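Obj.: predict assembly geometry.
Materials: sequence records (below).
Method: joint structure prediction, all chains together.
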Amino acid sequence: MDSSTKAKKREEFLAVVRRIGPLPTSALAAGEPPREGYLSELITKARKQAMRTALAAIEGALATSSHRKAHEGKSIHVLPRPEGGWEVKVEGGLSALVVTPTQEEAVKVARAAITRVLAAMSNGEGRHGDEIYWLWLRHPRWEVKVEDDLSAIVVTTTRQEAVKVARVAIAKVLAARQVKLTRAARAQLDECADPEILRRWHDRAFLAATETDVFSL
Amino acid sequence: MDWHRPPAPSASLCGVCFDVPEVGLLTLSIASESHLAQADRIWPQERRPNDLHDHWRWLKIMNGKRERFSILHRADSRVVALWCSEPKGPRHIESGRFYRLDYLEVAPRHRQTSVGLFVLALVACRALEVGASGLVLGGFPIDGVHRFYTEAGGVQRDVRGWKPARDLIPYIFERSALEWLKDFADGFLDES
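Observations (raw structure tokens):
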């Protein structure tokens, strides 16, 4: 190898080294698994850090009044990204608030964001008293629904709107479970504005085999 | 612990000196008991507390390993990296014979230098020397490790016929990547 080729290789080598940057670990190849427990600790730590960053970003976005106003009454969506990963987005917003590697994390961020939105908008009329709203947030099977319906995490400004969301959620759960709704059942659902009944129907929707299992009072 | 030392492999680059940018003169050597003892004495203190390999002890890892190498500072014989491979030489994986890199560690104080890439270049030389047409290894699932291997020409993918240990990420280097890496080592040969 002549000296000019050597010089070029040297430059190329250093360019690669710069792109790599400092190594995160001195162990570059391993013939055994990482020590028991270490990996999960590392992942948990990274996820907590990611969650803190995500929430800080959302809080930052909500801190300005224009953003806050823009967020009022809008849904918060959890959507897959074409290039991979998941994003938490405000309905109609062009850019993602947060991008996460998994849907589960995106859902967690979205849920936390909704809680923060509510806290931030404590002067909103009836927001905290909206039973359905909190009912959905606290529902233990919320994730199941989100997996089937990506736009199901919703922030509403009124009780009326929350009732609408509840109806849509029930219909979506049933559709995902391939339980067909007759016109009569659909009408029954559309007419119901009682949060307690809606909550009961929603619970049943996860297990029902037929619409009768859901809508019998 | 009694250290079992099988016959050393013949490697044409052993004893050859390399002038590595940012590091200085380094030589490749068969890993001896004293090299491993030195690494076990110094490296554990220099590893980070959350390192996934902080329990590694090289005397134990290399015990009975034939294919074992150390990279030393020429000036003071300090060990700057160690690696070992399986003893039976390249194995048939997919369409060719692949050198399996079992363990590789650079001295923790060299995490921020070019030693990591240079060592990989020497591993590539060794793989080609023993007739391998590629290289496989398992790396820790850490961002920086992924960047290291992909920038160095490796590809992260499942390898037919070989699996890394649990929780490790498989990387594969094809012959062209090995030759590209080997050129780096050739370029640093110290001719003085």
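Conclusions so far: The CA atoms of residues 27 and 132 of chain A lie 52 Å apart.
To do: check interface contacts against the pulldown list.
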